[in-house]
Amino acid sequence: MKPQLDRAHRVLPVILGVLTLVSVVVLLAWDVFPGLFAGDAHSLLGALPLALIAVAYLLYQTVLLPERAEAFRAVVLAVAFLFWSANQFWPESPRATLYNDLAIALFVLDVFFTLVGWPESSRDESFAESYTETPQEKH
Q1: How would you label 110-139 residue by residue, b for 16+ Cβ within 10 Å and e otherwise?
Q2: What is the C-alpha separation between 60 and 9, in angstroms, rounded?
Q3: What is the mean pLDDT of residues 12-33?
Q4: Collapsed DSSP state (helix, strand, coil) of residue 94
């Protein structure tokens, strides 16, 4: 990863990230005040943050310019969020269970890649862990 990411290229992913957070607040507002929303709003409100964060994450990856294997993992994760989003948006669809199962499979695959350390260029910090340099790396 580049030591300092170009802030100009991060603008769109960050804007989408902020919109995603706003959509999560609206989703949680539905939980507290469901009467303020249309009867079928929850499907959209549940799907929107998942789809937005998938797109934001893919755009963010274009800023990082990852190697091919890292880019593949980013796509796997984004597609998992998109299938989960589809499951939320179309809960009554005959394919809703398939969308959910594909999301689960892709999330599990992504975590498995982390557990086995693939690709080698990926540090453990990609799995919500902080990375600290070992004494050997500081030199």
Answers
A1: beebbeeeeeeebeeebeeeeeeeeeeeee
A2: 8
A3: 98
A4: coil
